Amino acid sequence: MQSIKIWCADLIVVMTLAAVLRFFAPEGSIKKYAEIGFSLIILFSFLFPFKNIKNFSVPSFAFEKADGVYNKTSADLYSDALKDSLVKILDKNGVECLGVSCDTELNGDGYFVINKVTVTLADGSEAEKAVTVLTENTELTEKELTVNVG
After folding, report:
1. Which terminus has fewer CB within 10 Å in the chain: N or C?
2. The CATH number, out of the four listed (3.30.450, 1.10.287, 3.30.300, 3.30.360), of the domain defined by the range 70-149
3. Beta strands at 145-149 and 112-121: parallel, antiparallel or unpaired
4. Tens-digit pLDDT string for the chain (150 aa)
5. Three-class SS state of 49
6. Phi, psi (deg, nearest 5) at residue 77
């Protein structure tokens, strides 16, 4: 989308410049040649973005890449928010947590699915408490949780 805005701005600048130069061009045959030159410049400026299009079709990978960037960014944001909330829950319940890692993915319906959550604790004796706290305060199951001592 940004490239279209730049292209439109370039066209406006070229057309404005051509109009100003046409106004100041001397009368006679020089004006005729100058107008032909200005017209060619405007034509090339207008057609320049179409030089990469083959068979009059826009390559689909340009749109797919943009969608992939959005999905990856939103997946990262979701995963980061999940990690932060799990750490807060553990801290609130007196479990010292060294770190949390989450394995999440975007399913076909556009919802995020939590595949696995790994919690790293400072003290191994708090492992049972951590699992209990997280299963009671979240919708996570024991299958999705792994506790490591770090």
Report:
1. N
2. 3.30.300
3. parallel
4. 677 788 788 888 888 887 887 778 777 887 788 788 888 888 887 777 666 555 555 555 444 555 555 556 677 888 888 899 999 999 999 989 899 998 888 888 878 888 899 999 988 888 899 889 999 998 888 888 888 887
5. helix
6. -65, -45
Overall residue count recorded for the chain in this entry: 150
Query: Pairing between strand 97-106 and 112-121?
Result: antiparallel
CA dihedral 71, 74, 76, 81 (to 10 degrees): -160
C-beta of residue 117 within 8 angstroms of C-beta of residue 83: no
- The radius of gyration computed from the CA coordinates of the chain, to the nearest angstrom, equals 30
User: Sign (positive/negative) of CA torsion 86, 142, 79, 118?
Assistant: positive
Distance CA 142, CA 117 (A): 10
Q: Tell me how crowded residue 94 is: count the other CB atoms within 10 A of its CB.
A: 9
Tokens 């960014």 appear where? 73
Domain boundaries, the chain: 2-58, 70-149
Closest CA to 140 of 115, 107, 108: 115
